[in-house]
Amino acid sequence: MKAEDILDQIDQTLDDWLSPDAMRSRPEGTPRPDRLSADARQLLIRRLVDNHGLTRMSARHAVLAVEQGRTTVHAELVQTEARAAMDEAMQRIRVAMQPAIEAAAAALQRMAEAVKQVAQSVQGGEWVDTNGDPVEPPERPRPALPRRDGRPAWQTPYGPARRR
């Protein structure tokens, strides 16, 4: 690649721009927040119809009223069903996460045992390698000697730089 090619790439990059909408773009398949609330609303309506025998329209009005903060005859039913739906969802999440939690707990247990072993070996004053075999302790570095000429470390002994 020639230097001219590289400079051309830099020039093209400097002239490139993003539209204001670029920052608002969303990958395909990502649900919109208003769509999520509509799905939750439909779930509650379906649960009220199936579990409590409400009509679809009365269940819809009850869910919308609770969502808007108004009190209705069925407000407690809506809240109870919402809690029940969340409890069911959390139970599914707990079941799905249980193997990962158990694996993490086992790994933390092994790590705690290793740290305990290292702490015991350090407490005895022994130096050990990664296999637990004893080794010689490293030498301590000598302290730096103070400068004899009394000038700060950042100052050069050769004077100021020459002009070119």
Output mean pLDDT.
Answer: 81
SSE string, helices as H and strands as E: HHHH
Q: Using the CA coordinates, give the radius of gyration.
A: 35 Å
- Name the structural class: mainly alpha
Total helix count?
4
Ends: how far apart? 33 Å
Note the quaternary state here: single chain
User: How large a portion of the residues is in β-strands, by DSSP E?
Assistant: under 5%
Number of strands: 0
In short:
By secondary structure, this protein is mostly helical. The chain is built from 4 helices and no strands.
Set down the secondary structure blueprint:
Layout: H1 3-15, H2 33-52, H3 56-67, H4 75-123
Helix pairs in contact: 2-3, 2-4
Describe the structure.
- The longest helix has 49 residues, at 75-123.
- The protein is 57% helix and 0% strand.
- The chain has helices at 3-15, 33-52, 56-67, 75-123.
- The chain has a domain at 33-122.
- It has four helices and no strands.
- It is flat, with a radius of gyration of 35 Å.
- α2 (33-52) packs across α3 and α2 (33-52) crosses α4 (75-123).
- It has 164 residues and is an all-alpha fold.
Provide key terms for this protein.
57% helix; mainly alpha; 164 residues; flat
